[in-house]
C-alpha cells in the first residue's frame, strides 16, 4: 500500500484569453494520497466564490496512479474569473488557482518595444500594457527592482478605453541598461484563502530582454584641398 505523502495540487487551463462563450478546459492534477477527494470553486471579478460544478458543461476523472488523479472540467466562459481547485487527502489538502480572462485583446499583458537592440545614448521607450477589464495597475521591474522615474528616465501611467499602460522612457539609454525587463500587471480580483483569510494577490508577468548596442563612431568626411 502506498505511503501517505503531502498532497499537492496543480491546475491549468487550455489557454488564458477567451472570447465570450468560448469553451474553457480546466485540468487539475492531485497527487500524494491514495484517497483523494476533489472540489472546484469559481471566483468572479467581484470576489464572489461559488461552487464550480454550477458552471460546468462536463467533467471527467482520470486515475493516473495509486497516488495521482487528474480531473478535467469544461465550461463556457461568460466573465473573467479565477478557478480554484482543491485536492483533499486523508490528513492533508492543497489548493491551486488559475486565471482566465474574457477579453478582446490577443494577450492580457503585453510589452511593446520598437526594437530589442537600441543604441546607447538614444532615447528609447517601452510600454507595459494590460487589459483594463482584468487588471488595475502595471509596473516595470529590472533585476527584481521596481523602476521609478529619475534623471535618466521617465516612468508614468497612461489609460485608454481597454488598456492600463505603464510607460518606461529612457532619456538616453546606456550599456548599463542592458538586461531583462519585467512587466507586472496586478489583477483586480484578490483571492482569499479559506483557511487563514490571507489575501493572495495574483500578478501576471511578461519579460523582455533589451540589449543596448554600442554606438558606432561617426563618419567624418575630410576634404582634401
Features:
Immunoglobulin-like; Ig-like domain-containing protein; Ig-like_fold; 225 residues; single chain; four-stranded antiparallel β-sheet; Ig-like_dom; Ig-like_dom_sf; mainly beta; 55% strand
Explain this structure.
This protein is mainly β and 225 residues long. The protein folds into two domains: 95 residues, Immunoglobulins (Immunoglobulin-like), CATH 2.60.40; 102 residues, Immunoglobulin-like (Sandwich). 0% of the residues lie in helices and 55% in strands. It has no helices and 19 strands. The strands form five sheets. It has a five-stranded mixed β-sheet, with no helix packed on it. The chain has a four-stranded antiparallel β-sheet with strand order 1-3-7-6, with no helix packed on it. A hairpin with a 4-residue loop joins strand 4 and strand 5. The radius of gyration is 23 Å and the shape is elongated. It starts with 7 loop residues before the first strand and ends in a 15-residue tail after the last strand. The mean pLDDT is 83.
Please tell me the CATH architecture of the largest domain by its name. Sandwich
The CATH top-level class label of the largest domain = Mainly Beta
Task: Report the strand count.
Answer: 19
The proportion of residues forming helix, as a percent range, comes to under 10%
Placed side by side, the strands forming the largest sheet appear as 2-9-8-4-5
Rounded radius of gyration (Å): 23 Å
Looking at the structure, the CATH topology of the largest domain is Immunoglobulin-like
Give the low-confidence spans.
none
Question: Distance between termini?
Answer: 97 Å
CATH superfamily of the largest domain: Immunoglobulins
Strand proportion, as a percent range, falls in over 45%
Largest sheet properties: 5 strands, mixed
What's the assembly state of these chains?
A: single chain
* Anisotropy-based shape: elongated
The helix tally amounts to 0
The helix-strand sequence is: EEEEEEEEEEEEEEEEEEE
How many discrete domains? 2
Determine the mean pLDDT. Answer: 83
Helix/strand/pairing class, anyone?
mainly beta
Amino acid at each position: 500500500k502506498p505511503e501517505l505523502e503531502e498532497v499537492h495540487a496543480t491546475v491549468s487551463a487550455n489557454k488564458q484569453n477567451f472570447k465570450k462563450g468560448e469553451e474553457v478546459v480546466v485540468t487539475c492534477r492531485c497527487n500524494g494520497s491514495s484517497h483523494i477527494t476533489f472540489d472546484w470553486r469559481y471566483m468572479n471579478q467581484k470576489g464572489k466564490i461559488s461552487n464550480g460544478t454550477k458552471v460546468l458543461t462536463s467533467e471527467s476523472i482520470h486515475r493516473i496512479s495509486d497516488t495521482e488523479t487528474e480531473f478535467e472540467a469544461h465550461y463556457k466562459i461568460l466573465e473573467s474569473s479565477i478557478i480554484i481547485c482543491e485536492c483533499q487527502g486523508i490528513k492533508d489538502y492543497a489548493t491551486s488557482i488559475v486565471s482566465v480572462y474574457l477579453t478582446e485583446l490577443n494577450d492580457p499583458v503585453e510589452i511593446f518595444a520598437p526594437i530589442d537592440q537600441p543604441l546607447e545614448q538614444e532615447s528609447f521607450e517601452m510600454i507595459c500594457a494590460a487589459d483594463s477589464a482584468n487588471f488595475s495597475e502595471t509596473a516595470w521591474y529590472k533585476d527584481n527592482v521596481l523602476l521609478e522615474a529619475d534623471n535618466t528616465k521617465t516612468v508614468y501611467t497612461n489609460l485608454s478605453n481597454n488598456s492600463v499602460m505603464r510607460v518606461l522612457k529612457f532619456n538616453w539609454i546606456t550599456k548599463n541598461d542592458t538586461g531583462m525587463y519585467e512587466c507586472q500587471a496586478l489583477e483586480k480580483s484578490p483571492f482569499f484563502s479559506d483557511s487563514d483569510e490571507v489575501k493572495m494577490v495574483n500578478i501576471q508577468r511578461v519579460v523582455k530582454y533589451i540589449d543596448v548596442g554600442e554606438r558606432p563612431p561617426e563618419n567624418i568626411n575630410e576634404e582634401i584641398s
